[in-house]
Amino acid sequence: MEEIPVKVAVRIRPLLCKEVLHNHQVCVRVIPNTQQIIIGRDRVFTFDFVFGKNSTQDEVYNTCIKPLVLSLIEGYNATVFAYGQTGSGKTYTIGGGHVASVVEGQKGIIPRAIQEIFQSISENPSVDFDVKVSYIEVYKEDLRDLLELETSMKDLHIREDEKGNTVCTRC
C-alpha cells in the first residue's frame, strides 16, 4: 500500500489562566490509546497523531516534524501547516513564544527545525545546500508573508505555475 504524503495532527492545549478563572470547561478529550478525540459529548474524530493537553514541544517536534526535516535534508520538499481558530495555540506550537526569550523546552517547531537543518548543513561541508523558507499566514482568505514586513496582504496570491506547481506569487 502506498504511503499517504499528508499527515494530520491535532494538539489540544490546556485552558489558559483566564479561562480557568472564568470557569470555562475543556470541550475536547483524547480517547486513551487511540488517535481519536471527542468534541462535546459524542463527536469523534480520528487523526494521524493526537497530542493531549500535557504534550510537550519536544514530543510534537520529534513525532511530526523531525521526520520531515530528515527528508528535507535528503532533498525532498516539506510543508508544515498550522490551522486553528484564534487562541488555539498555533503560535505557541510553531514558534514557542517570543524567540529571544524562549527557554529550550518551550521552543516550537520553527526554532527546532532551523537548528537541526543548519546543524546538518554544518556537518556536511562537501554537500551544497540551497535553503528556501516561506512563512505565510492565511487569514480570511488573505495571504501575508510573515518574513517580509513590507508585504501587503493584497500582494500575495497562490497560483499554479507553467509546470503545474503550486506557488505563492507577488503581484
Give the rounded overall mean pLDDT. 85
Cα gyration radius (Å) = 18 Å
Proportion in helices: 10-25%
Sheet of most strands: 3 strands, antiparallel
* First-residue to last-residue Cα separation: 42 Å
Total helical elements: 4
Shape estimate? globular
Please give the order of strands in the largest beta sheet. Answer: 2-3-4
Domain unit count: 3
Topology, number of strands: 9
Residue runs with pLDDT of under 50 for 5 or more positions: none
Order of helices and strands: EHEEEEHHHEEEE
Structural class: alpha+beta
| Percent strand | 15-25%
General description of the model:
The chain has 171 residues and is an alpha+beta fold. The protein folds into three domains: 1-54, no CATH class; 56-129, no CATH class; 132-170, no CATH class. 25% of the residues lie in helices and 21% in strands. Strand 8 (156-160) and strand 9 (166-170) form a beta hairpin. It starts with 8 loop residues before the first strand and ends with a strand. The mean pLDDT is 85.
Main attributes of the structure:
25% helix; 171 residues; single chain; 4 helices; 3 domains; globular; 21% strand; two-stranded parallel sheet; 3-stranded antiparallel sheet
List the helices and strands and how they pair.
Layout (H helix, E strand, L loop, with lengths): L8 E3 L5 H5 L6 E4 L4 E4 L3 E4 L2 E3 L5 H17 L16 H5 L14 H15 L12 E4 L2 E4 L10 E5 L5 E5 L1
Parallel strand pairs: 1-5
Antiparallel strand pairs: 2-3, 3-4, 6-7, 8-9
